[in-house]
Amino acid sequence: MQSCEGRGEAGVTAKLLLLNLPTELHNLVFNDLDIEDVLNLSLTNRYFWSIGRKHIQTYFMSFLGPWAGENIVCVGQYIEAGDYPPDMLTKDEEHELSQHQDENGRLMRLFDFTREYYEEIKGNVSVPTTLLGQLLDSG
């Protein structure tokens, strides 16, 4: 993009035309930018910040893994069978859980059930702590 400086009225008109484009077109522009350019354009004014902020948030959410945006429940050994929030499980999940018993013949706790039948997610999830730090690392 060429600078509008030193162009007088034509430069001002070009700037106003960019701001007068519909938000949908601005979003399309942001979609095609890399994260550094998204940040730079977002910092030009409050209007572009309101658009760019969503793109920056989406970028950082991508580091949280395939479960980003999903409901996550943390359970420990202290949670007894059936002692979880109402409607947390679907009827099918409740039925499946009720079919399993521990070695003493009691209903399995959710903690034991998940350890027995599901794979643990291992490894560190690296989430950038600052946007500037991430931009420097990606460059």
From TrEMBL:
Residues that span the membrane, as ranges: none
InterPro entries xref list: F-box-like_dom_sf, F-box_dom
Pfam families referenced in this protein's UniProt entry, alphabetically: F-box
Domain of life: Eukaryota
Sequence ranges assigned to domain F-box in this UniProt record: 15-63
Name this polypeptide is given: F-box domain-containing protein
Organism (species): Zopfia rhizophila CBS 207.26
